[in-house]
Specification:
Two copies of one chain form a homodimer. Chain A is α/β, with parallel strands linked by helices and about 350 residues long. The first copy, chain A, contains 13 helices and twelve strands. Helix content of chain A is about 45%, strand content about 15%. In chain A, the strands form three sheets. The first copy, chain A, has a six-stranded parallel β-sheet, sandwiched between helices. In chain A, strands 7-6-8-9 form a four-stranded parallel β-sheet, with helices on both faces. In chain A, strands 10-12 form a two-stranded antiparallel ribbon. The longest helix of chain A is centred in the C-terminal third of the chain and has 18 residues, at about 300-315. The termini of chain A are far apart. The interface between A and B is large, with 65 and 66 residues. Chain A binds a DNA duplex (30 and 30 nucleotides) through α3 and α5.
DNA sequence: GAGGAGACTGTGAGCGTTAACATCCCCCAC
DNA sequence: GTGGGGGATGTTAACGCTCACAGTCTCCTC
């Protein structure tokens, strides 16, 4: 039935040993770069390995070493640009470090779902887990989890006892809002992400902080859900309001929808209203107009999370409480302009 | 060192057996739903499992069964919408079937890279591999590979001896082109994807086929690379040409760039020129104007590829040569209009 | 009431590797 | 010349599970 039972069975260490005229343990030593192997023996073993096309059985190895060299990744909807980019960064960094990556992509990021995913990965025997936990519910699910496997959270909150790597959302929102205030806008409106998301929260905090620090009115938030459609709906509302001259939208997709609504309503951007997004998706440079936005370095997030996780694994500790914040980068394009007096 | 060496070792089957007063084999039978276990024994074993918090060691299990219940996925740049959606679909389908998914995301999809990735996954002991091979080079790398592990290609060509699941690119392009011809446009221009990509090729073939079948002139292709920027550049060229009234762009991202270039040049869409894209990314409904495009059902592609792969695995054959084509869906929005006479 | 078919359970071996320990041999110091 | 240190290698025992086979017990049939 199995593919191996048909042709010649694939060779095992003992086969190599026989061909090389040594014991299987010596083969193991060669494979593991053990120092005490005579050079001549080593080459003989290597030749035998080559001749037989031998490949070490990693499953057997994992059984005895108790290390699978596999990392688990739990993420919410990897179809979205942010999670997809983060997971990509994680995967690259892990592979560079010689680890396999096993992925679980969740449709909904509730407590039960996260727990299940974590159990599932623990069953598989992963050496560590990265949880891309952008929602409050997901982050909380991490807090009270049995701490028997190394773990690091990406974009989670800093409450639990796990390490967290994230982009500085508050700072990004601050940059965006200050940019608009600096252009002379009286205040800045905000289309937010869904309330359960930590990123949405951070962006609100940064935006509100700047407004208050500058003694400006804090307009009512227009709630969105990251989708272009919700941005469009917010845009329809804002287009009707003459006093609106600047909008900070919590992500680029919603900003696109907003731009669409403005275009339909004949509101000129940036002539009448300035718009800033968040994410810097590859498309945003080609929106109409090209979008001023905040770039997140997802690659750095991925690399850093793997770095922290591997340090935990190698130190043999289950958890640490490091916090690493990656700075955002502000990107000025053509959707913002000085306020008209 | 290892997390298990610190606290109490996690329980094994023998521990459960002792608590339940049975042999380890009976525990195994309960776990594997073997029919011949007395109900009373089963509940006793289950209780012991629960009491001890026992979890079966899947690594040990994989060693003896020679099945890891892990599937490998090789994909090109999972940051792109298409591959990301496909991998997402694959992952969901695999997990629903009780399989883990190990992912390798390649920066470049050349022959050596694909080989390495396949070796890497084979080492890990995956039961089967899905290769998202959208480029000709990748697809060819599959053709002459040692056939010792079940494999299925997604979006590959149909030349090698592996099964292939793909969206019908030719048909999608045909729908787009026929739609434009049907609107009275004399001919249709095309901004293509990179030449090495099979999808790009299929879309060209479908487009060209319709033009020839209708006795229309086949304009020179404007080559793109999927990026919004390349669409923008093509748009700058096309905007200068008065005879252009309809453009079929090989993906939505490039279509966005093209729309941007047209907007800058004052070319009205769909007033002066009609535009059709491909992919139906979530954003395209909110482009200016909302984009008429071709939707690909990536979820269906993922499910079908996993279905074929699992059938191969369960049948114990390494390869089959099935070909499954998922039909595209044409989506009319506001970027196309009847030709002006 | 003996024989046999099932149902249920236990025993032992083995998956392919690494870890721990044992062994051999060479060479050097006293 | 002998004791011993250490490099190079071999031997044996795990790791935690499933498979094959061997039991035991019950119940039915003739």
């Amino acid at each position: 039935m199995s593919s191996t039972s048909r042709g010649r069975r694939s060779p095992v260490m003992a086969d190599v040993a026989k061909v090389a005229g040594v014991s299987h343990q010596t083969v193991s030593r060669v494979l593991n770069d053990h120092p005490n192997v005579r050079a001549e023996t080593r080459t003989r073993v290597l030749a035998a390995i080559d001749q037989l096309g031998y490949r070490r059985n990693l499953v057997a190895r994992a059984l005895v070493t108790r290390h699978s060299r596999t990392l688990g990744v739990v993420s919410f909807d990897t179809t979205l640009y942010g999670p997809a980019s983060t997971v990509y960064g994680i995967e690259q960094a892990a592979r560079d470090a010689g680890y396999f990556v096993s992925i679980v992509s969740l449709r909904t990021m509730d407590r039960a779902g996260v727990r299940d995913a974590l159990d599932y990965l623990a069953d598989q025997g992963v050496d560590g887990i990265v949880v891309v936990a952008p929602q409050r519910s997901a982050a909380r699910a991490l807090a009270d989890l049995p701490a028997d496997v190394p773990m690091v959270a990406v974009e989670g909150d800093h409450a639990g006892d796990v390490s967290v790597v994230s982009v500085d959302q508050v700072e990004g929102a601050r940059l965006a809002t200050e940019h608009l205030i600096g252009l002379g806008h009286e205040t800045v409106w905000h289309v937010s992400g869904p309330s359960d998301w930590l990123e949405a929260e951070g962006r609100i905090a940064g935006w509100r902080g700047v407004l208050i620090a500058n003694g400006r009115a804090v307009p009512e938030i227009l709630p969105g859900d990251w989708s272009p459609r919700s941005g469009y709906q917010a845009g329809r509302i804002l287009a009707e309001m003459d006093e609106v001259t600047a909008v900070f939208v919590a992500n680029d997709q919603m900003a696109l929808g907003l731009l669409r609504a403005f275009a339909e309503a004949g509101v000129e951007v940036p002539g009448q209203v300035s718009v800033v997004g968040f994410d810097d998706v590859p498309e945003s440079e080609f929106f109409s107009p090209p979008l001023t936005t905040v770039r997140q370095d997802f690659g750095a997030v991925g690399r850093n999370s793997i770095g922290i996780l591997l340090r935990q694994i190698e130190a043999g500790q289950d958890r640490s409480r490091e916090r690493l914040v990656v700075p955002p980068l502000f990107k000025v394009r053509a959707s913002t302009a000085p306020a008209r007096r």
